[in-house]
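I am hoping you can look over what I have pasted underneath with an eye to the fold:
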Amino acid sequence: MLKKYISILILILISILTLYIGDYLINDVKIIVNGSSTCISTFSNEIEDILKDNKIELKDNDYINLNKSQKISDGTILVIKSLVPIKILKGEQTINSFSYENTVKEALDEHGINYDEDDIISPELDSKILANMTIKVDKVEEKTVIEYNKIPYQSIIKYNKNFYIDTKKEVQKGEEGIVEVQKNQKFINGKLDSEFIIREITKKEPINQIIEKGSKPKVITSRSGVRFEKSMIMKASAYDLSYESTGKKPGDKYYGITASGVKAKKGIVAVDPKVIPLGTRLYIESLDGSENYGFAVAGDTGGAIKGNRIDLFYNDHEFVKKYGIKKVKVYILK
């Protein structure tokens, strides 16, 4: 009978002990402080005790997801966030504020800042929020614009042997063309940052102006009062004062002086004195439709100018290099 009472007493004691210890069973708690998490096991169910045991000191403005008087249980998640000052620059707007959030994305969402995938955000969205951080949001927009630009026309000169050299007329009026230009423009915070041309479409071709100039020399007309003894077809080349043309350099004794002793200039040409005597007055007509050389004097000679050859002086060195050999008609004037 005694054993029976002892057994009952033990059961009663176990029940009492279970009820007493129940409130102090081990609780697994997850603590997240400013995004960093720690898992702990504790016999305590008091939040203040847990904070003290884990050396977590709450400041006045700190956020905690539970009331400090609330009891915790197994599996409780305790979230603590510190309020930090931040600056948000959105275009021309500056926002000085505070945030409890952990990342740039969370802070922007917290402040209702709208953005899309084309916008430039610095630091990046997943960057951790730090005290006194500056977050910059640049709004990026792209537009396709269409412009209509003018295409300038060219003036083309054609030489007409049926008109005298001092006459010209417009035989076709020039008209500008139109080109459609499609551009992609990129704007950052409303200001144009860059652009590139997508395509160009010619809507109207330009019409070139055509001007006819006379190339007929007056020396062959009786009305001009000028007479010529004879004419001949000759091969023409061009020369200037360069070393390539004369074999002389600036500073040489006879630099720039022709065989006849006169100074080299436009209108002085080199001839073979056996064909055209020095001092003869000439008129040189172009036979390829280009502008006539015009009136000239045979005032120079040249080692390569033999027989039916004539060398025309020009002041333009680049023109001389491109001149080559051309056929001209040379009039021996009276």
Summary: The longest helix spans residues 2-22.
